[in-house]
Specification:
By secondary structure, this protein is an alpha+beta fold. The protein is about 20% helix and about 30% strand. The protein has 2 domains: about 5-245, Immunoglobulins (Immunoglobulin-like); about 255-340, no CATH class. The strands form 3 sheets. An 11-stranded mixed sheet has the order 3-2-5-6-11-8-14-13-12-9-10, with no helix packed on it. The protein has a 3-stranded mixed sheet with strand order 4-1-7, with no helix packed on it.
Amino acid sequence: MVGFAAACLGVCLAMLSSAVLAAEGSISGYLVDAAGERKAIEHVVVFVADAKTGYPLLQDSQKTLSPGLDASLQKGLEGFRHAITSPDGSFLLKNIPAGEWRLVAQEWIGADHVPSPKEEDRILQLHGVVNHVVVRDNEVTEVRIEPLGDKPAVLENDPQEGNTYVFLSAKAPFAEPIFGPLGWGDSFRSHIIGITHQSKPPLMVRGLPDTEVFVSVLNYDNNPGIGGTSFVPGKSWKQTVPIYASWSNGYYTPPERLLPLVDYLDQTPGGMEKLVEDNKDLFPGDLKNPNNLRQLYDQLESLKEKTIEVPGLGKQQILDVLAARSYGELRKYHLKRKAAAKQP
């Protein structure tokens, strides 16, 4: 693929490493409504994730998924540790490693389980989150889960492709959508409020807060698609989520704010190479070398506060420069492909 998207997903899937966790306890809880009154709702799924990193606890082990997205994600979300509420809205999570966790509660309307990717899409109803749940050895931690809000939204992919995982968070990724999961960071992951698989668009979500929500999507096609957007629920009903991909119908228009950078790199021969040469302390070497590029991706979050001087554009965030490079490569690929298709 045009570079970044495929390499990005490949890094994410290859970087899986887990820490074995020891002492265990339990989490007992129930759902409440906005007034704090107990809700008797069954079949609500309650996921468990690390409070700091946001990585989920795995269903069949005492390990967390870390630091990327395991290839097993293609098998579905049932591989993540969860409990399902009983008719009175209560749940019990047993054998949770001691430590600090967070809970994410949601249901797929009409389903009594976590749907597999092969099942039909359902409305995603969010029921709230609980942060900083402390689990101690041989103790039961009691919690209650309050709703985040009651706002609905419909998410439309552009292009309208399915086989996509959708992640909803209360915090923004630290980098542009073109970086995919590598640009999410702990803040985005540890504030996720909902996650689902989407067989085909659109996706209906209910129970959203009235504050800004950040969406990231990951399509696991042979040539992956990655994208995202943000919106404030209640201000508009439908939201479009661009999916950047090398597919023939893949989205490739760079964000408007980065167009000057994209155009500079596209129109300046050796522009990126010169920036790398002038900032050797920030780059591992020639980015045309896959090993150097991977090394850079591995340390992406450490670059989020760093800037470099770009001729004619002044100081620019290095992450924006790297994103502009990737957006530009993708745009160039699509334009070249379209031009070739017009040839007799």
